[in-house]
Specification:
By secondary structure, the protein is an all-alpha fold. Helix content is 75%, strand content 0%. The chain is globular, with a radius of gyration of 18 Å.
Length: 152
Amino acid sequence: MSDLRTRFTEALKEAMRAADAPRTSTIRMILAKLKETDIAARPSGVDKVPDEQIVQMLRGMVKSRRESAELYRQGNRPDLVAKEEAEIAVIESFLPPEMDEAALEAAIAAAIAETGATAMKDMGKVMAALKAKHGAALDLGRAGPKVKAALS
């Protein structure tokens, strides 16, 4: 069993013991999404997705909650904004710490130098190099626009 799967199970037990209903519900949501992700990966011969894919799944969950929170903010529903933000906090507690701006810029510069990229057509190569080298610590959604800016 992967490290993250173990952390989810332990966190769920702790939240249930503490009678922390919002946290329990969010962790159950994560586990349901993980089961869905595992099932979706079965046709390709993978029984349980690796931690890297779990991290991507969690980042996706955070992104969709941020979008929902923004819509609720526009709709003047502070109660729902608070609920989404509480879920984001729980989900992010399982994510590895992200690179800060300076580290991200340095990683992008190194990847560009390493791949010899000079134009926008090389963006795929640069992104692949970043993903291979930094994996979970890198939010590709944040890196993409910066790579694009560096190459144009």
